[in-house]
Amino acid sequence: PTPPTLLLLLLAILLHGLSLWLRIPVGSHLNLGVFNTASLVAWFIVVVLLLGMLTRPLAGLGLLLLPLVMLTLLLDLLLPGQRLLPETLPAGMQLHIVFSLAAYGILSLAAVQAIVLWLEDRLLRRKRPLAAFRFLPPLQTMEELLFQLIALGFFLLSVGLASGWSYLTDAMAQHLVHKMVLSMIAWVVFAVLLWGRWQRGWRGRLAIRYTLAGFILLMLGYFGSKVVLELVLHRV
């Protein structure tokens, strides 16, 4: 990426971060409503993308990522939700939130990478390459990057789940059953995928299917439950 591109991306990150800083703190609480959280995850994704672009061929992911980030920011501004958490959370809960959001961000990047791989592979098979994909690295490099993202995301997700387990007292009363079950299934999907890559050399379409399946389960577990609780049932 050129220096002007990096500067524009850095400016976007700073402005997005300022928007979050103005909207998330509410008095002595933190507002982690569904759209605030989605915007925070999107901000983290762009930060990781910027850092990764310095050493990895990640610039092509911006073609799909940046419009989605803009959409989450727009939804956060137009449809503000509210789920207040105290600022003085226990250290373990803070660890759970940070690692969970980081895992969602990294695995979101992996999902976008999988979609790009699927599109590129499909177009190459049909001998109809798009000009936009000519700027991407070879498929093998893209696939290696995909598994690097999945491995990092899996580690962060493991720490996030483990650190939150001790604060689970009554899953039904805390409205965490769906989140817990779907997140654990997603963890198993990613674990099987990494095992298959290591032991069986899984790649290509099989790896893409597992990646997208795990990502969908993870997003349904977290954001699906938040949408139902906050926007449908209005429980904050």
Would you give an account of this structure?
The protein is mainly α. The protein has one domain. Helices cover 73% and strands 3% of the residues. It is built from 7 helices and 3 strands, in the order αββααβαααα. It has helices at 3-23, 34-53, 62-78, 91-125, 139-165, 177-200, 204-232; strands at residues 25-26, 29-31, 84-86. The protein has a 3-stranded antiparallel beta sheet. β1 and β2 form a beta hairpin. α2 (34-53) packs across α4 (91-125), α4 (91-125) packs across α7 (204-232) and α6 packs antiparallel against α7. The radius of gyration is 18 Å and the shape is globular. The N and C termini lie far apart (42 Å). Residues 170-174 have low confidence and may be disordered.
What is the general shape?
Answer: globular
Termini separation: 42 Å
Low-confidence stretches: 170-174
- How helical, in percent, are the residues? over 70%
Strand order of the largest sheet: 1-2-3
Residue-averaged pLDDT: 78
How many domains comprise the coordinates?
A: 1
Number-wise, the strands total 3
So how many helices?
A: 7
**What oligomeric state best describes the polypeptide chains here?**
single chain
- Determine the strand fraction and express it as a percent band: under 5%
Would you list the SSEs in sequence order as H and E? HEEHHEHHHH
Radius of gyration: 18 Å
Briefly note the structural class of the backbone: mainly alpha
Largest sheet: 3 strands, antiparallel
